[in-house]
Design goal:
367 residues, Dna Ligase, domain 1, two-stranded antiparallel ribbon, 14 helices, 6 strands, transmembrane helix, cell membrane
Length: 367
Amino acid sequence: MSKDVFPPASGKKKRIKRAIMALFLLFFLLAAAGAAGAYYVWQSASSPADAASNEEVDISIPLGSSLSSISQTLEDNGIVENATLFKYYVKYKGEGDFQAGEYVLSPSMSPEEIMSSLKQGKVIGTEEGKLAIPEGYQLTQIAEVIASETDREAEDVLAVINDRAFVEKMKANHPALVTDAVFGENVRYPLEGYLYPATYDVPSPDTPVEDIAEEMIAKTDEVVQGFSEQIKASGMTVHEFLTFSSLVEEEATGKTDRKKIASVFYNRMNIDMPLQTDPTVLYAKGEHQARVLYEDLEIDSPYNTYQVKGLTPGPIGNSGVDSMEAVLQPEQTDYLYFLASPAGDVYYSKTLDEHNTLKAKYITNAE
């Protein structure tokens, strides 16, 4: 009588077993590699771009810049290694309320130091005894800079500059520049836009705020007088000229052609179209934020150019020579729209359809 013989495990079963073990091993290796990769990415995101660098770089952050735009600017200038990583690191840390301004930053700075500087509006690298006022700064920001160099509170500096007696004195000392227009019904701060962006000497922390502010006003007077004939020919008052220049300045980026932006504003006013410029919305809101939200466009303010046609009641910041020249010598175009991409490039269009197409391509898809 023959016995049933049970054959050993087939070669096929052995292969399946080896395959399962290989898959487990592969999964383990992938998990380990992923963890290592994540650790490397996190280390890169949280470390300086170049810890050994002694380089200092001038960085300009325009008002209303998005986090994507700021991150790209930092990467382009070598301050951070990767714009995307910095952007997500900022979001992870719950930061991002960065302020517009001119900064001196270094690749050796940690992301925390960079965020702190941008969040506080701290201009790094200003020489002691010097007071640097960037182009596009608003009066509240200028007050903060003066306060930091004179051991005063920003609120006290602002109170001095806004004091009626001081403004009247400026009218008397600089009659061609400071006129009754600064006391217009809806003007927020009489001397907003009248303190020229430049670097000034501050002999000592005891230097009176009035002296510092008047030096800036005198500089604006000197610069504006150089354009006096052109301003007269334009039909604008000096107050309107400074107001228009400030709108161009606040929209400008490092790659922006100010003369084209000025032409867009002229073209809109010529057809009774609102200027619809985002910096005026932020000024109306009185806050610095990464981007203008749709609900912000509904703010009821004479400074909101989405709601009110024409120029704002007064300047929304100071302006430099380039923006002043752009207002007086705009490029001749048919453009009615423009937008700045996160990379800082500016795109112009003649119709709303063209504008929306560009917006979808360079803004919506980039976020």
